[in-house]
Amino acid sequence: MKILFIACYSPLINNSASIETLQYLNNLARIEDNNIHLLTVNFPSNSIYYDEYIFNMLDKKINLHIISGGKLFEAIMPKKYKEMSETNTTIGKVKIKSALRTVKKY
Fold first, then answer.
1. How far apart are alpha carbons 37 and 2 in whole angstroms?
2. Which helix (H) or strand (E) holds 40?
3. How far apart are CA 88 and CA 78, in angstroms?
4. Interatomic CA distance for residues 66 and 79, integer angstroms
5. What is the pLDDT of residue 90?
């Protein structure tokens, strides 16, 4: 049976809906006669939602058709910034240490 599955929340991203879609598609792929095609929106690898680990869990028999969400979609997509996350982590550690020293004094 040929099946076209259309999903915005695909296994390219990490959220509960995409994990549910992943399990549903993998179970459909277990049936030998099924020819499954997934039509989904492209989430860039620098998006905060992109998760390569979940994507690799997708059955290899599933045919992917990834389309662009458009310029507006890509413009409003939150991006990962490595430098910012490292700086925020360092600042957070300094604030925690400072707070612990203050508590220790009292």
1. 8
2. strand 35-41
3. 17
4. 19
5. 60
pLDDT for 46 equals 84
Q: What is the pLDDT of residue 56?
A: 92
Q: Structure tokens of 67? A: 């389309």
Q: Which two tokens stand for residue 5?
A: 């599955």
What pLDDT score was predicted for residue 37? 96
Taking the C-alpha atoms of residue 52 and residue 62, their distance in angstroms, rounded to an integer, is: 16
Read off the tokens for 9: 């929340």
> 21: Cβ–Cβ under 8 A, 6 or more apart, which residues?
5, 7, 9, 10, 11
Cα angle value 78/82/88 (rounded, 5°): 95
Give the pLDDT score at 82.
66
Residues paired with 67 in a beta bridge: 41
**Positions in the chain whose pLDDT score sits under 70:** 82-92, 104
